[in-house]
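FAQ: What does a ligand-bound record look like?

Like this one, built around 2-acetamido-2-deoxy-beta-D-glucopyranose:
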Amino acid sequence: MSKLLRTVAILLLGNLGWTWALIPSSSLGGLSLSARRYDSIFSFGDSLADTGNNPVVFAENGIPNPVTRTPYGCTSFGRPTGRNSDGRLIIDFIAQHLGVPLVPPSLAYNGSFRRGANFAVGSATTLDVAFFPDGKLPLNISLGVQLEWFESLKPSLCHTTQECEEFFGRSLFFVGEFGVNDYHFSFPIKTVQEIMLFVPDVIGTISTAIQRLIEHGGASFVVPGMIPSGCTPPVIAMFSDADPAALNSTTGCLEDYNSIGMHHNLLLQEALEKLRGKHPNATIVYADLFGHIMEMVESPRKFGFEDVLAICCGGPGKLYCGDDDSYLCEKPSARLFWDGVHLTEAAYRYIADDWLRSIDYSPATARERSFSY
Ligand SMILES: *[C@@H]1O[C@H](CO)[C@@H](O)[C@H](O)[C@H]1NC(C)=O
Ligand SMILES: *[C@@H]1O[C@H](CO)[C@@H](O)[C@H](O)[C@H]1NC(C)=O
Ligand SMILES: *[C@@H]1O[C@H](CO)[C@@H](O)[C@H](O)[C@H]1NC(C)=O
Ligand SMILES: *[C@@H]1O[C@H](CO)[C@@H](O)[C@H](O)[C@H]1NC(C)=O
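The answer part, i.e. the structure of the complex:
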């Protein structure tokens, strides 16, 4: 394989699995979704949120998929479920906490979607495929395509405007994380400066999607930001050889690649503020992933992590997680990264706990509230 192809393969596999993150109350701008009761969760995103769509999509496109093999799922499910982790994702912890069923993957589940549907697919981009050079990836599963899937499902859930406002008014919508794959797919062919130029297009697409969901009746939104790409093991492995001095001597991360996520998150928060102005009845919460991952990288012991920049599963060399003879760490719960760019259940749990402080509805808090009235 040429260096470029190999690079693309690493990025793609790295991106095959995408997962998730959460909301520190500090980034909520005084907003919270608390004390609301949700009957369902609808989710759009990539491998950070995909609860089982990628096996369907990858099989349809004839792309090998390590995620369908053990040890994926080993911590919580005892079998691979299509999640890009050893166990539960942020969205799973949130569903469990809110008392809503684990959000069924829209392409893989044959049942009712009245309690929610997950349209997220590993490797999904925000921008449509036409933006990217011809190739096997990215697949035609962008945010815009996921919205079309939602719009096809909608008539099975509600009909009139009022009925839809009532139904989706009791739903929690997750829009993202989106952006990681747009940027990571671009790493082999674009400089950081060139990538920065299309961040506004990514943000505009996310913002338009939320607007469309509000028009469909959505009222409660959680919108996760980007991760620090420069702290992910595949990106460090790929780019630090060329310039070892680019590594931050404290964290071991690549500042240049982290700056993309910082820029994205800044523009995203500005866009959400504008949406709040336009739609005062909607609650739109920004959910921070970047800060949480940085905190884990900077203070691993606080989280019980022994090694934060090494993957738990995969390697040596070109072996992927799930390949015969690939490496598997002894304690996934002591790691931040599971495979290429995806986090372990342990990391997702910490992030979910924090996000939940902003999305909190639990019988206990509801009881407290009712006593105080
Ligand atoms: C979906 O469920 C229906 C009835 O519950 C069944 O007839 C059908 O074969 C199922 N389809 C798949 C793909 O499992
Ligand atoms: C992508 O999928 C959508 C919806 O399924 C379809 O309308 C569109 O034509 C597809 N685009 C490409 C480039 O295949
Ligand atoms: C290195 O990382 C630390 C901790 O995140 C940060 O405070 C510092 O500014 C970074 N150094 C450079 C040169 O970017
Ligand atoms: C917002 O909610 C109020 C009170 O329920 C309602 O009167 C108003 O029409 C709503 N505004 C929009 C733009 O939906």
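Follow-up question: can I read anything off the structure? Yes, for example: The chain has one domain: 5-299+349-363.
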